[in-house]
Amino acid sequence: MKYQSQKIALAYFAVAMGLFAVQVTMGLVLGWVYVSPNFLSELLPFNILRMLHTNSLIVWLICGFFGAAYFLIPEEAEREIHSTKLAYLQLIILVVGTLGVVLTYTFNLFEGNWLLGKEGREFIEQPKWVKMGIVVAALIFLYNVTMTVLKGKKTAITNILLLGLWGLALLFLFSFYNPENLSLDKQYWWYIVHLWVEGVWELIMASILAYLMLKLTGVDREIVEKWLYVIVAAALFSGILGTGHHYYWIGTPGYWQWIGSIFSALEVIPFFAMMAFAFVMVWKGRRDHPNKAALLWSLGCATLAFFGAGVWGFLHTLHGVNYYTHGTQITAAHGHLAFFGAYVSLNLAIFTYAMPILKGRDPYNQVINMASFWLMAGGMTFMTFVLTFAGTLQTHLQRVLGEYFMDVQDQLALFYWMRFGAGIAVVLGALLFIYAVAMPRKEIIEPGKTAEVPAE
Amino acid sequence: MTETQARSEPRNALDELPGELLMWVLIVSELLVFGAGLAAFLGVRISDPFGFAEAQDHLHRTGAALNTVVLITSGFLAARAVQLRRNGQRTMARWHLIAAMLLGGVFLWIKGIEFAEKAEQGIGVETHPFFMFYYLLTGFHAAHVVAGIVILGLVAIWDEAHIIEVGAAFWHMVDLVWVLLFPVVYLLA
């Protein structure tokens, strides 16, 4: 660790991993509700569980991005973070907000209260006071990192990262705007959800991936930057008007079906470019970095993002297809692999890379970490296939043959059982990962020594 | 980075592109979008050939043909500007760029008359699938003409030869797209 203030990242990563554990546990409970629908129905209804599952995902991913920014910006800008105190204050605000959210959702506190009660819009259900807190935290963050970069060296990686983070914060402001008209409500709602994950988050992803490639493969910065600019251009070109693929059936004019179909079909390009980028850099690279697990996560991220976000997104993005598949388990399949591949894996890659450096040790627990990768990636891929089959069947039974929703759900039971099994693998993988990065060995294990004690 | 570019990176086709790599990324992306739009147009047309033919008769073919000449001439002037700048005739290059911009303005003026005429007849985006594609494709293209005029203006101010070349490349793309749109949307019987 070159700069003391990089240490801030440790606290952010810890919070992120804690919420990661909460998120996948909630996911597992939800998976169980699918096979046994009355489970917890009085205590914690499905909709509340789902809110906790999706909200904690978003919050931990963002905490991870913040941590990644605090970790890599000092190195790139070649100076300490502007204010360490502000960085910790920001984290405290986020943690208090998160606790507030969990308590408000779980016990349904202050129902209907303008400031304190939960709001009804999917994914942005947070009470208004929490939203305000998020904005304040985001402002503190942007001030802090922007000051650092302005005073330090400016690189393509930090420029793109800042662009992405500024976009993330500014687009969140749309969560305060809630028009009466339901079509308009949905239209602005997607400015947040879509323009995050298919817009500015891709910039964050590309820049963090570029940083990892730079460090892990030792390829020239010039080459990394050229790729980075191309990826970012492709992401913004396709992603912004690609928002149209959410406007097919919400009451917006019909031309959105074509704008959405055409532009969102191109969204596969930046994800393909990121995958090509990661592999080409590894092939070109001459550096033999000891942190193999970080490399595995980086390559896994680029690959699974291409399939989850790119291929599975394209699967149901054309409006002629989406007319039938909209809101079926196909969407759930895509959502799971896209978030896991693109943003979960990205965070786990930077955690894996940064944690040994933050702790001042050699990369430890490499085998456990890599095992956790295969467990999580395998589980999530299996889940994706299972849900895709479930969704295909559901589309046919429900949308083509016109059977009732609940009758169809009964026929999907086998798939939901398998999804629950896949969920167990993912949760075990997640816990294994947290163990691997958080519980250090005293020293690195030499390959020779392990051969002597195979029983360990 | 200390290592030299030459050692790690043999010269490849990308390095030989004129202008700027990112401009080519943009150009290829634009061609993909307009290409997909035209393909969708032709696809939907199969489902209703008579409706499309009838709708097409409402279009102003002469105006569009005139616009084709206007835009190609404008593209020629932009290309000349690059040559002139390379030969050191800086003022002349600038005048060519300004002329190219003015012709872009003429294109928009003619296009504006066309759109106004349609609006007067009560033809809108929702009138018929033909007109939805008509407005989407030519409207998007017109927006690119506006962007192109701005870009030509910028490269007339910051007028190094290779920068003018980047601007001219964008302008040629706008040209090319129109040359593809014109026959498919206006003429194809």
From TrEMBL, chain A:
Entry GO CC: plasma membrane
Keyword flag S-adenosyl-L-methionine: no
Residue span, Cytochrome oxidase subunit I profile domain: 9-456
Known role: Component of the anaerobic respiratory chain that transforms nitrate to dinitrogen (denitrification). NorB is the catalytic subunit of the enzyme complex. Shows proton pump activity across the membrane in denitrifying bacterial cells. The mononitrogen reduction is probably coupled to electron transport phosphorylation.
Subunit structure: Heterodimer of cytochromes b (large subunit) and c (small subunit).
Record-stated family: Belongs to the heme-copper respiratory oxidase family.
Pathway(s) this gene product operates in, as recorded in its UniProt entry: Nitrogen metabolism; nitrate reduction (denitrification); dinitrogen from nitrate: step 3/4
Primary subcellular site in the record, as a coarse category: membrane
Enzyme class, spelled out: oxidoreductase
Annotated transmembrane regions: 12-35, 55-74, 86-109, 129-150, 157-177, 189-214, 226-249, 255-282, 294-315, 335-355, 367-393, 413-438
PROSITE patterns listed in its UniProt record: COX1, COX1_CUB
GO process annotations (BP): aerobic respiration; electron transport coupled proton transport; respiratory electron transport chain
Catalytic activity: nitrous oxide + 2 Fe(III)-[cytochrome c] + H2O = 2 nitric oxide + 2 Fe(II)-[cytochrome c] + 2 H(+)
Compartments where found: Cell membrane
One Gene Ontology molecular-function label: cytochrome-c oxidase activity
InterPro entries membership: Cyt_c_oxase-like_su1_dom, Cyt_c_oxase-like_su1_sf, Cyt_C_Oxase_1, Cyt_c_Oxase_su1_BS
Protein's recorded name: Nitric oxide reductase subunit B
EC number: 1.7.2.5
The entry's keywords: Cell membrane, Electron transport, Heme, Iron, Membrane, Metal-binding, Oxidoreductase, Respiratory chain, Transmembrane, Transmembrane helix, Transport
Membrane topology (UniProt): Multi-pass membrane protein
Entries under PANTHER family matching the protein: CYTOCHROME C OXIDASE SUBUNIT 1, NITRIC OXIDE REDUCTASE SUBUNIT B
Pfam families: COX1 (PF00115)
UniProtKB/TrEMBL annotation, chain B:
One MF term in the entry's GO annotations: cytochrome-c oxidase activity
Matching InterPro entries: Cyt_c/ubiquinol_Oxase_su3 (IPR024791), Cyt_c_oxidase-like_su3 (IPR000298), Cyt_c_oxidase_su3-like_sf (IPR035973), Cyt_c_oxidase_su3_a-hlx (IPR013833)
Gene3D superfamilies associated with the record: Cytochrome c oxidase, subunit III, four-helix bundle
Pfam families registered for this protein in UniProt: COX3
Record flagged with keyword Lipid metabolism: no
Segments passing through the bilayer: 21-44, 64-82, 94-113, 133-157, 169-188
GO biological process: aerobic electron transport chain
Keyword DNA-binding: no
Location of the protein in the cell: Cell membrane; Membrane
Boundaries of every Heme-copper oxidase subunit III family profile domain copy: 23-189
Coiled coil: none
UniProt topology in membrane: Multi-pass membrane protein
Listed GO CC annotations: plasma membrane
Keywords tagged on the record: Membrane, Transmembrane, Transmembrane helix
Family: Belongs to the cytochrome c oxidase subunit 3 family.
Protein name: Nitric oxide reductase NorE protein
Organism name: Aliiruegeria lutimaris
